[in-house]
Amino acid sequence: MFFHHKPDEADIAAITSVKKILGLRSKKQEYKIVYGAIPKDDCEIAILSRSMLKIMAELGSHIEVPDRDVTENRVRPTLIENTDAFPDLRPLIRIQSNIAKPAVGNQTSFGFDVHANLFKNRVRIGLGVRDAINNAEDTIFLTIGIADLPGLAYWMSR
Questions:
Q1: What is the distance in angstroms between the CA of the first residue and the CA of the last residue of the chain?
Q2: What is the rounded CA–CA span in Å between residue 68 and residue 72?
């Protein structure tokens, strides 16, 4: 992949920022991308990826199914993580199911999120707030998405 334009000052500042965040050597122009959790040095980017099937299976394992469905052998029971011993450690995702309809007109929560695309739309960062009115815990969240990892690595190495 080639780009036919020279990076401007904003591009150079963004590239420098990403290199600093990833702990990469700033003067280097090429980085090795490897499968793994931790890079071995400051010239390597480690990516621990999963197949879509494994992601769907992981999400499915966090669904708290109703007891009635388990009793009727419609579904296997799922493991519900007990975090009583570690109250600050909560699961990353929690999916609940219920046959009762939610109350209408009784909702007092409010939230919003903002997204910014960086590096020629290769990285998307989102910052949001949920349940801001009720002062609930964990109201602020951050999302980071990478759309074109090879293109981003090439763009950073220029």
A1: 12
A2: 6
